[in-house]
TrEMBL record, chains A, B:
CDD domains: ACT_HSDH-Hom. It comes from Streptococcus caledonicus. Its EC number is 1.1.1.3. Residues 351-425 form the ACT domain. This is Homoserine dehydrogenase. One of its GO terms (molecular function) is homoserine dehydrogenase activity. It is an enzyme of class 1 (oxidoreductase). Belongs to the homoserine dehydrogenase family. Its cofactor is a metal cation. It catalyses: L-homoserine + NADP(+) = L-aspartate 4-semialdehyde + NADPH + H(+). Gene3D superfamilies: 3.30.70.260, Dihydrodipicolinate Reductase, domain 2, NAD(P)-binding Rossmann-like Domain. The keyword Chaperone does not apply. Pathway: Amino-acid biosynthesis; L-methionine biosynthesis via de novo pathway; L-homoserine from L-aspartate: step 3/3; Amino-acid biosynthesis; L-threonine biosynthesis; L-threonine from L-aspartate: step 3/5.
Amino acid sequence: MTIKLGLLGFGTVASGIPFLLEENGDKITAAAKDQIEISKVLVKDEEEKTRLLAAGNDYHFVTDIDDIISDSEIDIVIELMGRIEPAKTFITKALKAGKHVVSANKDLIASHGKELISLAQDKGVAFYYEAAVAGGIPILRTMANSLTSDKVTRILGVLNGTSNFMLTKMVDEGWSYEDALVTAQKLGYAESDPTNDVEGIDAAYKAVILSQFGFGMTIGLEDVTHKGISTISTADVAVAQQLGYVIKLVGAIEETPSGLFAEVSPSFVPKTHPLASVNGVMNAVFVESIGIGQSMYYGPGAGQKPTATSVVADIVRIARHLNDKTIGKPFNEFSREIKLSDLSDVKSRYYFSIETPDKKGQLLQLAEIFSSEDISFEQVLQQKAQGERASVVIITHEMSKTALANVTAKLSEVAEFKVLNTFKVLGE
Amino acid sequence: MTIKLGLLGFGTVASGIPFLLEENGDKITAAAKDQIEISKVLVKDEEEKTRLLAAGNDYHFVTDIDDIISDSEIDIVIELMGRIEPAKTFITKALKAGKHVVSANKDLIASHGKELISLAQDKGVAFYYEAAVAGGIPILRTMANSLTSDKVTRILGVLNGTSNFMLTKMVDEGWSYEDALVTAQKLGYAESDPTNDVEGIDAAYKAVILSQFGFGMTIGLEDVTHKGISTISTADVAVAQQLGYVIKLVGAIEETPSGLFAEVSPSFVPKTHPLASVNGVMNAVFVESIGIGQSMYYGPGAGQKPTATSVVADIVRIARHLNDKTIGKPFNEFSREIKLSDLSDVKSRYYFSIETPDKKGQLLQLAEIFSSEDISFEQVLQQKAQGERASVVIITHEMSKTALANVTAKLSEVAEFKVLNTFKVLGE
């Protein structure tokens, strides 16, 4: 028997699939116990079809989804279109028709995964999406199959290659945010509207999916606080360096006594922490747990071949189940009631960069404000800024999100103080 | 139904199993779809039994393996005794009796895995051993289930926690090998006879198992060249630092055009390479492949809880198959004919540390010897050593193992030259 695939979309990632089927055919066929073949490829319109054929792509291109759904020979539908619609409608159709589905669509899975997953279960078919988080890193299946025995307490992830590329340039080469963005756009890492990447939204989607696998809670995007990298200044980068940190955009999901807390935010990462050396477009997921303790999964977060590798790994698992005539278990079975954390339980050290008038008594007044919220200082750096202004950098001891909100409000009431930035500071 | 375990041995790792079953019981039971229970524990003799009971261990201890083998209620036998015998005999008995087996015994699996695996297949039972390589890192199942779609070209691993702890101390604190060893022994990381750890034998066992999962080749320990860390001097460490490297004991398995080559050797790792920041007793497996490109799996290489986590992950998978009444696939199915590489195909840059008389013309003579083997220099450092001697450090361009053997032989013929050390130099 040959396992037949129907591809939805033929962009960058899709064309990585034939590469693997060709270059690694023996291993893939042996693991799947069957040949895997691309049977039909859905494209947008006749124009795209003509263009792809002219470019030498020798596939059976179709422009109507029903050509794939109604084809009883197609076992697995591979959705690589991205965005919510029409991907959602097409996947729904495929699942309803009893076809297995593989998707790399993190936006869709983070926002509508629940209903698609439950539809797949009703229909007794597989719905896998390893490529949706951290592209080439096999993190989801590893969580589902290996970390089952372990209780995860916190996940820290460098989950967005674009912003990590930019931050690496800002840290290693002293570039400004603006210069880094322009270069990222030139290299094709950032889109012309880079909002999703630089504001932490893309990473927040991934945090939603990681919460399911790591903590069994299907939270929504609105449950993930997110803050991007656009406010990071060269001064912040330099101070971080000086104090032994690098700034990374970190997706953090942790379980506190009261529940789950997830956020994406620029964070000071100690230079000795394994996440600190995750550079350029690479991603990494750092897992803290009661059994293993600390483990990290590192690799490319995007790209044609890495993403296609995750997609094909999903395909091989489904093909194998088809061959063994077993259903296989749902991709993620870990499920608990959603309980979100009280902000008073979410604790961290923080970095404050504050501009003050360059006159006596400012530091004392700052100390009083922080002290009124029971926040103590671990490190303070005071230096002359431009003109009549001074710059005060504070690293606090551990404090809660509640205290952070309170002290931020109090600082904003003092006209003389200008809080330039506040970032989380991770421990070793 | 309750899944009943028979434990062979009740050492450090074994006692990590009840910890996980208790602290993470809900998740484990949900994933296994059954309760998991330690039914019987095999100990050496009545003395050990009395001692363990007195220490408050409330288990059904037995001293005869047949009490476990003949117990039809026991589904899974967990071997945590270590060494070859009697572990091999006991596992064989268990498999023959149709019991599933989980083992953490890398020595056994590297030396006799083949026959045990084939016995398990004949009997239609599972034989899993995730904990055998890199303790808490879920690397084997990840290779078997996720990297199936990918073709691995090279694996680089920091696979021995003891030697990595020692090297970290030598690099970070400037300790000598001897001081590092004494401390490792004091902390219980190194045994009184540290040979297996410091001479790369332990890492070579792991390389054997990684070769099976990564390249489908069941090579023998004798096929893995190994060289330990005992000859590394503080001078080597300092020069490495100066040139932008750290020295790590690296297990390297690569496929060249002519076949597989595996070795464990001290290696210069560029500071920017992800393996360079794997410190202390941590392990990491860095995988190069045609699909993902570069990925790394990092975590504790040993220890009670990490190792027990891998063991329990294996147990959960088996329990789940029992519940689903499916057999599950063999732990590793990737299998190809063994083909070992010609040494002329195995290429790397190398570091040479050579002592010469402190007189004119020495460097020229050295250059001539290397040049006669077509080896060119990337970097040369010459400095005055003690007394009448000088020290020459060379980093070569890429050269083959054959050239390495030839040039080493030629250098040994010149009485004036003393080659202090030769280490592999990895690229970025």
